Amino acid sequence: MTEAAIRIDNLRKTYAGGKIALHGVSFDVPRGQIFGLLGPNGAGKSTLINILAGLVNKTGGNAEIWGFDIDEHPRNAKRSIGIVPQEILFDPFFSPRETLEIYAGLYGIPKPERRTMELLRAVHLEDKADAYARTLSGGMKRRLLVAKALVHNPPVLVLDEPTAGVDIELRQQLWAYVRELNERGTTVVLTTHYLEEAQELCDRIAIINHGRLIANEPTPQLLSKAQEKVVEVTLDRDIATAPDSPIFEKAELKGDRVIAITYHKGKVNAGEVLTALNGAGYSVVDVSTREADLEDVFLSLTSDKAAA
Ligand SMILES: Nc1ncnc2c1ncn2[C@@H]1O[C@H](COP(=O)(O)OP(=O)(O)OP(=O)(O)O)[C@@H](O)[C@H]1O
């Protein structure tokens, strides 16, 4: 049986006050993967993670973690997931060793089975085992949060915006450790605003926008959409419909004589696009080009959905 690490089915959340944060989101996180959950600010990522963590009550739908329904088997569901939160929150008077011991106690892990020093070694904090948490640097605190999320040895680790306020060196260390964990069998879910960040690590990326899932694809497939470029041309006369060509991914009328042509920069260049237009009898009087960014990927995905 190939069960998903996380299965989300028609998940809905309306906050008191009427704000709909999730409009019925469904997707599976396959076991063994590094999975990116992307979306702009306010898209609903934290709401989704907080529902999985048992911190927010869902309005409707279902969620399973490692085969355990969060309503029917909340204890097992919770034991199957470790969450590294966005915010750094510790009791400043406990040392990293004490922090992990306390958490292990909360999970009811007997002393001989605890992995406190192993975890501290893994996040390079063994020499800080007995320092006060308040004396740790920001990066060290974040690594301690990762160790804390792993205390109960969960098969699924969720990192919520792990690089917010994190410098490049630490980010690389964090990624190396996430890769290592994944190679040893942990399924990893990463939420982020940044496509770039997910691109480096994730096998698969889902995007949510305004509480709706707008993509869920293997990373290379999604990135090929970001390989699109747009050339906007102004013609010498009005036209009624946008011209078509096999080398265009898409051509849209932006005004009576302005066309936005999307092309794949790995296949053609702007010059070839203009040559195709000339060959079809159009005279171009002005041109501008721009790179497609995540915003374009979002837009093209939403409009693909609308057209489907
Ligand atoms: N407790 C709450 N009460 C009312 N509305 C909320 C609450 N928490 C979140 N929201 C709203 O729900 C929507 C989704 O928020 P959420 O925090 O899940 O987004 P996000 O994708 O995690 O964003 P960010 O990347 O900024 O954390 C937003 O419009 C937000 O304002």
UniProtKB/TrEMBL annotation:
Keyword ATP-binding belongs to the record: yes
Pfam families the UniProt entry points to: ABC_tran (PF00005)
Coiled coil region boundaries: none
InterPro entries according to UniProt: AAA+_ATPase, ABC_transporter-like_ATP-bd, ABC_transporter-like_CS, ABC_transporter_ATP-binding, P-loop_NTPase
Superkingdom field: Bacteria
Domain called ABC transporter: residue spans: 6-235
UniProt KW keywords: ATP-binding, Nodulation, Nucleotide-binding, Transport
GO molecular function: ATP binding; ATP hydrolysis activity
Protein family according to the UniProt entry: Belongs to the ABC transporter superfamily.
Record protein name field: ABC transporter ATP-binding protein
